[in-house]
Amino acid sequence: MTDTKNNTSEKDKIQYVAISPDMFQAQNNDDEIDLRELWNVIWRGKWIIIAITAIFAVASVFYALSLPNIYKSEALLAPADTDQQGGLSGLSGQLGGLASLAGVNLGGGKTDKTALAIEILKSREFFAKFAEKHDILPDLMAAKGWDMASNTVIYDEEIYSSESGEWVREVRAPKKAKPSMQEAKQEFEKLFSVDKSIETGMVNISIEHYSPDVAKQWVDWLIQDINSDMKMREKNEAERSIKYLESQINKTTVVEQRTLLFQLIEEQAKTLMFAEVREEYAFKTIDSAEIPEKKSSPRRVLIILFSLFAGCGLGIIIIFTRFFSENSQREE
């Protein structure tokens, strides 16, 4: 019995070894047939693929041509004075030791004025003042294009009436016909960009808009307003510091403390002087904004190429879907 079983198992092994190469060869032939068949399916449905691709191409051309040009204006800025420190915090490094001996606390250390100015530029409060001061809401919320011949912004008359200067858009509560500053800020963030280079410390401010003139004007206004804002902040801080130091002088009779306080007042007076005479208080303009001559977007060629690939891919998917559905029906 044992010999019989061993002989049977050996025969099975021999058969398996003999059959296995044929099975693999058959599998390879099936794969090869499938690839050829798939290619034939694509070739038979080439006119469907061509038709769908052509439809996508024509639609993408009309869509790309309907998009208005967008122009980008930008300026390169440098921190006006990275070592200048306003207020009592700026004096702590120079006179901190003497002040501690005199019993005067000058507060914390240095502050990064460039980072502070950038965060102010991004703030809601700064934008609200900027938008109200320069009346940018129509160009921000209602513009839909730019007329090159007359160099004027084209407004959407269903949103804003350029003749009467009134907002006529229909919106649901809590929104109103005139956009709120919160709504306008969200739209402004899509057009506005400010970046600081880690390597050089330079700051780049850019604005995108349908009108190249508007883009350039907004960049100029932003630089002017942030310099003015930082100047007023430093000036107000210096004036408050001087008042505080003068009040401390009246409270003490210690000669060392009075000498120190007078030195602190002198430093604050220097800050006031810089604020009065320097126009570019926070940023110095290295490369000023210009009216762009070339559009930054849309990239119409990329839109058309993407549509061509999408149309071709959709056509192939439709062909294969039909092919596999027909095969499944035949098998059933």
Automatic annotation (TrEMBL):
Keywords: Cell membrane, Membrane, Transmembrane, Transmembrane helix. One of its GO terms (molecular function) is protein tyrosine kinase activity. It is a multi-pass membrane protein. The keyword Iron does not apply. The chain crosses the membrane at residues 47-65, 301-324. The keyword Cell membrane applies. It comes from the Bacteria. Its main location: membrane. Residues 31-133 form the Polysaccharide chain length determinant N-terminal domain. Signal peptide: none annotated. One of its GO terms (cellular component) is plasma membrane. InterPro entries: Bact_polysacc_biosynth/exp (IPR050445), LPS_length_determ_N (IPR003856). Pfam families: Wzz. It is found in: Cell membrane. This is ECA polysaccharide chain length modulation protein. It comes from Paraglaciecola mesophila.
